[in-house]
Specification:
This protein is an alpha/beta fold. It contains 15 helices and twelve strands. Strands 3, 4, 5, 6, 7, 8, 9, 10, 11 and 12 form a ten-stranded mixed β-sheet that branches.
Length: 384
């Protein structure tokens, strides 16, 4: 039977998970569960699992879901399970997809706190301990998150997120502060660093799968509007970008991009608090169109990139002519078009962008340089 959440949303209960295999031998209930789905990520598992087990004490379990892998994942997983009791293994006999794997992990996890990890991302030393300590100290916070480094498949740092943080020092962001800061900046939460209070996430029905790539981001915003969150102003996780990811592929299709935007704005209207839903729905839609246009610009070359941006944003002939002209400028075409869509779409306040730019290049310069050096030279999993 469906169950009614405290917010009035009807959700289906989670299906039971497959039996956990005997490799997982954790006994006492943990305080934090890491849910790690993996499908044919044998090449990345030593890094992601190595980083997690290095932080996993007696209060932490890792629920690893092998979603029907056909590569060398079984051998990699067996080796880790032999050496680390904190790993609880679930095997799917066939590939069911990431969301199905996450559901299995949720049903098996026992911790009051939960991190949804990815096999090709990894955490940096201290993240799990920092999350537990921060959420104990701030019992109102729905989740913990931090800054993350963005790397490509060659382990080169290509950026940092969030572009503009909700605050420049670590601390609790209250629901009132959330309402204030969300008007200036957005897109603060990135999966490799987000540790949730499981009970609060369960109250909103976990993640709405109909939202696709937006399901976790909108759940995080909903929780933050109701409870606030803790933000650590330090880089504690690494997110690997994939040009073949679902979000990147979505931005390449105007039809799919518009469908996702419509789904997100309708979900906001149906679920967000009454005092923010109308205003934020419009702001979120504008910001999402900007992000998709930016991805499309960087993902396509030549005239297709400029026309793709115009198609997605619904720009008329005059803006299309200007965009094509700027895009043809040697060496600076993408930069100029990005500046144009930033000025037109106003995804974030200009003062906030300038302040963030200064913060990353002055107070945080040494931290970022040290991380980039470690990533370039790292030979052991997870920068151990």
């Amino acid at each position: 039977m469906p169950t009614e959440t405290p917010r009035g949303r009807t959700v289906e209960p989670l299906a039971s998970a497959p039996a956990v295999e005997p490799e997982g031998r954790t006994s006492a209930p943990p305080s934090l569960s890491v849910i790690l789905p993996s499908y044919n990520h044998g090449q990345w598992l030593p890094r992601s699992l190595g980083a997690l087990v290095a932080q996993a004490g007696p209060s932490i379990e890792i629920v690893l879901i092998d979603d029907g892998s056909t590569d060398n994942s079984a051998a990699v997983i067996a080796d880790f399970c032999r050496r680390h009791d904190c790993i609880r293994l679930i095997r799917h006999d066939a590939n069911r997809g990431t969301l199905a794997a996450v559901r299995s992990g949720i049903a098996a996890a026992r911790g009051e706190l939960v991190l949804f990890a990815a096999a090709d991302d990894f955490v940096l030393p201290g993240l799990l301990a920092r999350a537990e300590a921060a959420l104990r100290e701030h019992p109102d916070a729905a989740f913990f998150c931090s800054e993350v480094a963005v790397v490509n498949r060659a382990r080169q740092v290509v950026g940092y997120r969030p572009v503009v943080p909700p605050r420049f020092t670590s601390g609790y962001v209250s629901p009132a502060a959330m309402r204030r800061e969300i008007q200036r900046t957005d897109n603060w939460f990135f999966g490799p660093s987000v540790v949730y209070r499981r009970q609060l996430l369960a109250e909103i029905g976990y993640f709405d799968e109909s939202l696709g790539t937006l399901c976790d981001g909108l759940a995080q915003r909903l929780l933050a509007f109701h409870h606030g969150f803790y933000f650590a102003a330090e880089i504690l996780a690494v997110w690997m970008v994939d040009p073949q990811s679902l979000s990147a592929q979505t931005s390449m299709s105007v039809t799919e991009s518009r469908r996702v935007i419509d789904a997100g704005t309708h979900w906001i209207a149906a679920h967000f608090p009454a005092d923010v839903r109308d205003n934020y729905r419009a702001v979120f839609g504008r910001r999402l169109r900007f992000n998709m246009a930016r991805q499309r610009l960087l993902g396509e070359s030549g005239r297709n990139g400029a026309d793709g941006v115009c198609d997605l944003l619904g720009w008329g002939p005059h803006m299309r002519t200007l965009t094509r002209f700027l895009h043809r400028v040697p060496l600076l075409g993408n930069v100029l078009v990005l500046a144009l869509i930033t000025l037109r779409m106003r995804p974030m306040s200009i003062p906030a962008l300038v302040t963030s730019w200064w913060w990353k290049r002055v107070p945080q310069r040494e931290q970022r340089a040290a991380l980039e050096h470690r990533l370039a030279d790292a030979g052991s999993p997870g920068l151990a």
